[in-house]
Q: What sequence folds into this?
């Protein structure tokens, strides 16, 4: 499932077929943005709908197939719905007619296993009000209070959104600074930004633009320079930069050119700390040196893009890793949030990109199977820094804070 192109909080809507999941989304939005039908199984695959939620802002609602779908095709639909848990920041479980049985219990178990906070909506309450017994059971067993709701005649949308806002982690919809705790107002920041075949025509890549905006938001001046003008710039530059951030592909050159009294990191490591599993990256990166002949490495790209011979994930990192280790290694590359081609236990290492186009929850969810299986994980920039012998310098700015 290749989702996650929008860096907004994702809310998954789950439940049995014909429980009114699509109608519920339309009621929240106040307009028909999801297809509604009395035919069970109308929603075949997870469908993403963008809308504005008061107090949260832009959000993505993920409408999923019914968890009680049957048959070979139905099983595939259910599996895709469950896979959506890797991408959502919270879940809404829709129930009707006081039915809370094996399907719902299993689904809540999946929520808990994936650390996904959830709320329960008892839909079609105009026909079947929720029973006190079920309400007591949900509160006792799961610590949740089911809200009554009628998607056809919604009268408590504000109450639903208020509960949603309380249940969703605030980190899912509030911006956290990329570099704010590393910088003080007035610190000069140097961004080393190569323009190569992977750079969009007439534009800069997203992490570079995110860094520019973040530095300015922290009341710091910023200078951008291509790698071929770095040494000349530093020769006469005053005041001295507090921090230099480089593209990982020119890490070694930047390390040699940037004096030791200036902190140095990369855009990818900046993002790894901001929205990745930084602690596990720190533990997993040194495992590159323990790779053996025949080991298989998984490269996780978060976006889909035109592949060129300069592609960092598909060509440069594999080539650097083979050269660094001197081992005969195999590589699988997965773009977007698609399933891996092999069981996660088949891999000796997982290398995740910076994740500039997806949410932190999606990065963490993407890596969780590997972390749970004990497979070391690292990040593009951290792996490159390790292989070029500058890992400690590259992560030092963030270890200090």
A:
């Amino acid at each position: 499932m290749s989702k996650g192109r929008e860096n907004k909080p994702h809310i998954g809507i789950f439940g049995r077929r014909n429980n009114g999941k699509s109608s519920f989304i339309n009621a929240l939005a106040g307009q028909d943005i999801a297809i509604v039908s009395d035919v069970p199984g109308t929603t075949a695959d997870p469908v993403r709908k963008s809308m504005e939620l008061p107090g949260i802002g832009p959000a993505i609602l993920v409408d999923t197939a019914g968890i009680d779908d049957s048959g070979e095709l139905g099983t595939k639909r259910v599996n895709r719905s469950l896979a959506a848990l890797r991408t959502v920041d919270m879940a809404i479980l829709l129930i009707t007619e006081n039915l809370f049985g094996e399907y719902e219990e299993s689904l809540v178990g999946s929520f808990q296993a994936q650390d996904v906070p959830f709320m329960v909506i008892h839909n079609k309450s105009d026909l079947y009000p929720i029973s006190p017994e079920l309400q007591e059971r949900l509160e006792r067993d799961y610590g949740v209070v089911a809200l009554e709701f009628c998607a056809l005649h919604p009268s408590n949308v504000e109450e639903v959104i208020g509960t949603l806002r309380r249940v969703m982690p605030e980190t899912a919809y509030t911006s956290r600074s990329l570099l704010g705790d590393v910088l003080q107002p007035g610190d000069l920041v140097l961004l080393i930004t190569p323009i190569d075949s992977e750079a969009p025509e007439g534009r800069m890549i997203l992490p570079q633009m995110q860094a520019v905006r973040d530095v300015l938001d922290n009341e710091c001046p910023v200078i951008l320079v291509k790698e071929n003008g770095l040494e000349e710039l530093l020769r006469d530059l005053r005041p001295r930069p507090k921090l230099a951030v480089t593209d990982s592909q020119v890490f070694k050159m930047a390390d040699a050119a940037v004096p030791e009294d200036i902190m140095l990191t990369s855009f990818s490591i900046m993002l790894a700390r901001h929205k990745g599993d930084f602690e596990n990256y720190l533990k997993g990166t040194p495992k590159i040196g323990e790779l053996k002949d025949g080991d298989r490495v998984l490269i996780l790209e978060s976006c889909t893009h035109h592949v060129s011979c300069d592609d960092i994930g598909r060509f440069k990192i594999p080539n650097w890793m083979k050269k660094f280790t001197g081992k005969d290694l195999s590589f699988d590359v997965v773009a977007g949030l698609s399933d891996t081609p092999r069981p996660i236990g088949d891999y000796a290492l997982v290398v995740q990109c910076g994740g500039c186009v997806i949410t932190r929850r999606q990065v963490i969810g993407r890596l969780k199977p590997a972390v749970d299986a004990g497979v070391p994980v690292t990040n593009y920039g951290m792996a490159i820094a390790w292989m070029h012998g500058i890992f400690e310098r590259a992560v030092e700015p963030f270890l200090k804070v």
Residues 129 and 148 are 7 Å apart (CA to CA).
